Amino acid sequence: MTNSVIAEGKTTAEAVEKGLKELNVSKDMVNIKVLEEDKKRSFYSILAPRVVKVELTIKENIERKEVRKQEKTKEKRVTNENIEEIEIAKKDVEAFLNEFLKQDYSYDVKIENFDILVNISGENINHLIGYRGETINAMQVLISSIANKKSSSKIKVFVDVAGYKERRIKTLEELAEKISKTVIRTGKAITLEPMTAYERKIIHTKLQENDKVKTFSKGEEPHRRLVVTLNK
Fold first, then answer.
1. Fewer Cβ within 10 Å of end Cβ, the chain: N or C?
2. Would you say residue 75 lies in a domain?
3. CA 79, chain centre distance (Å)
4. Which pTM was predicted?
């Protein structure tokens, strides 16, 4: 989304109107700055066309709302709604889990909103979770590949172990609230430790409706970090 434009016209009103059309916004959504206005004209330039230049910049809160709107649009996905293919994928996932898991573990595979949800439970199961869910994420990639082997379009698969992901989401949302309050109180940005894209998105989503702070990521994977700072 273009957030500013410089427009010209014979009058300020004409220049503003051109700028609004180019940005496709209304006047109350922008800040207007006159860059050049021919108030004093010499005898030699009096016959030259009068030009007024203005800069129109979309207000910060308007831009953020538009970005959020675009993000939500991107999140809309094309879902495989062929229930026969999803049922076949479910059976393939169950067959894999029968071979992959030891007898001390149990699993539940179900279809919900055209997605396949896998939950594994049992004793001494921490090694199937891994450090911050790394093993769960790896299993999800593998099981997703198995589920989509025979499908005509993507079937989404979500894997959880002993409810770890639900607990992790709650922990990260609580962390987001705590960090945002600290940033607002101190006025200083806070850089979090490296997280997966999934975890960063949880914190970003939690804070995106808070107009007092903003978030962005920096660094390269797997050391990419989320930064929470004041929204000036």
1. C
2. no
3. 19
4. 0.58
